[in-house]
Amino acid sequence: MWVTVAIVVVLLCLIWALTGRPKGLPAGPTCFPIIGNIGLFRPSEATQAHRKFRKIYGDFYSLMIFNRPVIFISGFDNIRQLLVKHGDMFSERPRVYPSEVIAKRKGLAWASGAWWKEQRTFALTTLRKFGFGKRCLQSQVIEEVDCLMDEFEKYEGKPFNIHYQLKISVSNVICSLLFGKRFEYEDAKFHRLMKLLNTLLTVVNFSSPAFIFPSLSRFSIFNFTKAKPTIKALAEFVVERAEEHRETFDENNIRDYIDAYLLEQKQRTTEVNTTFTGGDKPTMEIKDRLPMVDAFLLEVQRLGNILPLNLPHTTKEDFWYQGYLFPKNAIMFFMIDSVLSDPAIFPEPLKFNPERFIDADGQFGGEQKDKMIPFSTGRRMCPGEPLAKMELYLFLTRLLQRFDVEPEDPKRLPSLEGTLGITNMPETFNVRLIKR
């Protein structure tokens, strides 16, 4: 009998040791045997749950997903310190569902190490040649904005769901850079691609155990099985575009990003082997004269909070910070939401208040502006930030120049709540666009 008791005790201790919180990690909720902290909250409610955890445990806390630690870092100063000052240490991506199943450890977002550095350098250099981050790109954006305005006019002030046209139009700017072409709003194939992307961003949730352990994605209980056909269809779309480029490739006429990539491959093979009225279109040249537009857009990004958990990071080796251990290969989320919703930085954070970004002289600026990190910060911050900011400005100003925007029902404004997957996606809503 005593032998049996001893075996049971040893097994319980072993289970606890394997699934409990390792010494040195930031504090967190009590772990359950084997499963750790799984089931503490619904993945769709992760943003609210993490705000609560921060109030309880402070800027550093950890959760155990089975035996794997996941560390959460909050606060502007902490995020800035670790991602900028110690940027090289935290520049890796962990092995999670997107990196292993979707990207297969490739691509700008999910690769790590020397391969990622090489790809990032090529991407930024190539995109700059096409005007990325420069005002010369605005003519391409304005052309797409005008197509969108013409599409809006077809509704003649009747309520409609604006999401689809907006997604197509914004995506067309990126497609023009990548593929050298835009897609018509009626294009069935591109329409399907947008639906697939929407499905993928909704299904893949950072807080699901299947995100942390990709092998679990095969079980339907985690809902990731819906992602597989989506990933396959997206890959087929990109491969089809790449094949079209190979067939028409001319190294003396580099049309877009894919052509530039093909040229690089060929070379390496060879080498080795103020107002919105009037007729003039708003441009980037007058942006500094419209501080309220900048303030409005920044407040939209703050409350929109589209990537509240950020993309996950990991460390190259064990790292200690403020007395806490960040183990090698542990998953870490640098919580963008902790900054965007911090009342110490943004008083009344749930209130929409663009004036918070206007200084005493009526100009766009101030400390709150400097602490806005919707695109993250450090070495792994979003490389598309310059283009995104240009699009936001040109789309909004042209829209307001052409239309008065009204809700379908003035007594029932669109909800600010979203659906959290990889991104925090807004609920659909209808608007009226009344031609000026």
User: Judging from the principal axes of the Cα atoms, what is the shape?
Assistant: globular
Q: How many domains comprise the coordinates?
A: 1
The stretches of 5 or more residues where confidence is low (pLDDT under 50) are none
Reading side by side through the largest sheet, how are the strands ordered?
A: 1-2-6
Oligomer: single chain
Number of helices: 16
* SS strand fraction: 5-15%
Determine the N-to-C terminus distance: 87 Å
Structure class: mainly alpha
**Mind telling me the CATH superfamily name?**
Cytochrome P450
- Report the order of strands and helices: HHEEHHHHHEHHHHHHEEEHHHEEEE
Known CATH architecture:
Orthogonal Bundle
What is the makeup of the main sheet? 3 strands, mixed
In the CATH hierarchy, what is the class?
Mainly Alpha
Strand element count: 10
Fold blueprint:
Elements: H1 2-19, H2 46-57, E1 60-65, E2 68-73, H3 76-85, H4 97-102, H5 107-110, H6 113-129, H7 138-153, E3 160-161, H8 163-179, H9 188-203, H10 209-212, H11 227-248, H12 257-272, H13 291-304, E4 319-321, E5 324-326, E6 331-334, H14 336-340, H15 367-370, H16 385-402, E7 403-407, E8 418-420, E9 424-426, E10 430-435
Parallel strand pairs: 2-6
Antiparallel strand pairs: 1-2, 3-10, 4-5, 7-10, 8-9
Helix pairs in contact: 7-8, 7-16, 9-11
